[in-house]
Design goal:
CATH architecture: Orthogonal Bundle
Radius of gyration: 19 Å
CATH superfamily: Winged helix-like DNA-binding domain superfamily/Winged helix DNA-binding domain
Strand content: 5-15%
Structural class: mainly alpha
Number of strands: 3
Distance between the termini: 19 Å
Number of domains: 1
Largest sheet: 3 strands, antiparallel
CATH class: Mainly Alpha
Oligomer: single chain
Order of helices and strands: HHHEHHEEHH
Helix content: 55-70%
Strand order of the largest sheet: 1-3-2
Length: about 160
């Protein structure tokens, strides 16, 4: 399930969590991109704006805007890198860590429910299928489709 969480945090997949009242309340507090940044900073400890942009799969200007919003709300601090004053580091404040912890606890709870509902083989199958879907959606729309009559390798367990 750690792989599933990674796919969620990096924005490669989005869970249909709209029905969960706690997550709806959290999303009313901050936009989803800000939540993802909070969760990534919780995991990393600190990040440069370039690292945050890469983690979010977003342009540097977007990551900088997210950093500004988080700082304005008192959720993160921006500091100059001690070794290179041109580089800006972003790290969570205690308030940001508390909010990220709340979101992470709720997401962990939902992922545990999924894991409990599935057999271990089904969890593996879910992860494999999710990764396949992500790869398929990352390919350009005009990429040639695989030949359905071509032999395929099917893993049997």
């Amino acid at each position: 399930m750690q792989q599933f969480l990674e796919m969620l945090l990096t924005g490669r997949i989005r869970l249909p969590l709209l029905g969960d009242p706690e997550l709806l309340a959290l999303e009313r507090e901050l936009p989803r991109s800000d939540w993802l940044a909070l969760l990534m900073l919780e995991r990393r400890g600190e990040a440069t704006m370039s690292e945050l942009a890469a983690d979010l799969g977003a342009p540097l200007s977007t990551a900088t805007g997210i950093g500004t919003r988080l700082e304005r709300r008192g959720l993160a601090l921006r500091e100059r890198h001690p070794g290179d004053r041109r580089v800006v580091l972003l790290r969570l404040t205690p308030k940001g860590r508390q909010l990220a912890g709340r979101a992470r606890a709720k997401i962990d709870s939902l992922l545990r429910r999924v894991q409990e509902a599935l057999a271990p083989e089904e969890v593996d199958q879910l992860l494999n299928l999710a990764q396949k879907v992500v790869r398929a959606l990352q390919e350009p729309a005009d990429a040639p489709l695989p030949d359905p009559s071509a032999p395929r390798r099917v893993r049997v367990e």
